[in-house]
Design a protein that fits this description.
The protein folds into two domains: 143 residues, Oxidized Rhodanese, domain 1; 119 residues, Oxidized Rhodanese, domain 1, CATH 3.40.250. A five-stranded parallel sheet has the order 1-5-4-2-3. A five-stranded parallel sheet has the order 6-10-9-7-8. The protein has 278 residues and is of the alpha/beta class. The chain is globular, with a radius of gyration of 18 Å.
Amino acid sequence: MESLVTTEWLAGEMGASDLRIVDATKFLPDAGRNAAAEYEAGHIPGAVFMDLGELTDSNSDIDNMLPPPEKFASRMQSLGLGDGSRIVLYDDSPLKSSARAWFMLTMFGAHEVAMLDGGIAKWKAEGRPLETGKETLRHRHFTAWADDKNVRTKADMLSNLHSQGEQVVDARPAARFSGEEADPRDGIASGHIPGSVSLPHGTLFNGDGTWKTGDDLKAAFESAGVTLDKAMVTTCGSGMTAAVVAFGAHLLGKTDVALYDGSWSEWGADGNTPKEMG
């Protein structure tokens, strides 16, 4: 299974015993939308709802930190996602939140995980069927383990300021990166990590919501100043859209991509971390 699948491919695979479809929609708190309610009002047939807002480390003071492996495995089992499942993710969010689900699933050991190109919006635009209510699948075993080699901590990022071993790519809107627009959360400074480059996650998509691919995707990275043959760390506000940039790099074949889990929620709240404006 490819990492990015089409609506046509998914329609043809519907009903396969090992296929699991997941709605991983998440909105910002001020969006005025309810992801779970929208899922119940209409979702791709057979899809279960993954509550990304609940898939966090509840013991951390930092927003949206990765959950412990045991918690993640337990939630996947309850969704019917297990070892051997082929998992297709989609969303209907401006955050392209299914990328966060992709990052967590691959980090925690799932082997076949794909994203639906264009999400449910494209599925609906093509007049494909929807179901309402909730889907309940039987529990399946999901082996709890974590490979965190592609996760960076604040200590890692501070060390990287001196070594410059990894380029830092910020997925937030350009005005948030520059500091022209203040962070919407109380107690969080404006600006960006020194030496990082701005690549707003929305620039990786076509006008119809499908992913840019090939030379177009490569050009989006390079026009932002990203050197594609150098190791990369992605960051954003709270680790959501950073996963979008990580997936885009994955589509280009990059394997040396990490995600700063604390992102600006952690860095911007710390009065001792250096910040840049502009």
